[in-house]
Amino acid sequence: MSTFPIFLRQLLRTTAFSTALPLLALAQENAEPAASSEEEVMKAVRMHAYGGLEVLQFEDAPRPQPNDDQILIRIIAAGVNPVDAKIRQGMFARMMGTKLPLIPGLDVSGIVEEAGANVTKFKPGDAVYACLGFGTQGGYAEYAVAKESEASPKPKGLNHEGAAAMPVAAATAWQALIEIANVSQGQTVLIHGGSGGVGVFAIQIAKARGAKVIATASAANQEFMRELGADRAIDYNATKFEEVVKDVDVVLDSVAGETLQRSYGVVKKGGIIVSLLEPPDKAELDARGIRGTAFMVSPNASLLSDLSKLVEAKKLKPVVSKTFPLAEAAKAQEAIETGHTRGKIVLRVADEPKG
Questions:
Q1: Residue 17 pLDDT exceeds 70
Q2: CA angle at residue 167 from 32 to 187, to 5 degrees?
Q3: Does the predicted model carry a pTM greater than 0.70?
Q4: What whole-number distance in Å separates Cα of residue 115 and Cα of residue 341?
């Protein structure tokens, strides 16, 4: 399931632009200058060109240096998101304007190694998690820099692998349900893709708000969704949800296509559909007296802090289905591209600190 919503659908709709890009020429144009012998290096997964899994190279790279408003994070774990694979393929190359070689990765958790002169919230040794800037990224590495506004203290009681699974996916669920749909106690929420990266968090967040949750997923994930808190789980292969669900207040859709089309009829008048992949049809919305929107997630330190509070109150927990060592980032992306992972996939960059 996508966790960096609207970029994906907009670019896929203009995919001729994406796939026809002279990507190799772009890579040569942005080639990195040779590193000096005195430059500090680290292990990282880098792309020198856009393309298939083979462009992800595990190699030495210059260690980044923090600016005055940044922290340098020694990464313990990094999250893998579906958008990472789209970036690797070159879908956002022109939009991002990012120079190659590029270290992909948005979600990180680790220890502050250095703090810039203007940083006031963090000091070396602090455990943090962060969502790195979309234009800079850098998570598939031993070190990354983040602005103070992009990081938050790691949730207490959560290891770094769990924390690295949260920023993009959990923030997507939070913003969709809380900031856009304003889910409240007693409402009914239908979540499509309930076992995916966003869905896992969405079920828990909706329950924490006192809503009744209905979630769809494959047969293998029915009990899993109930364990997360879903009041009703629907096997989309065995049952048409629109035949058994009606009058919901909110639909959170991370599937799109036919699933979105069949969702209009289950929303009560005045309700809302929040789509992560394509804009809802205005004519359908108007005809039924319902609202609809699509959006792009924008995590920040304040939002990460709110998510941490839910984790520490034991109302939210990440689900990491599989971990890979940093050197096997290509295998991790291969797994995420299937679209059928349960919860999140995470890269292990270093051993969890003791104590």
A1: no
A2: 150
A3: yes
A4: 36
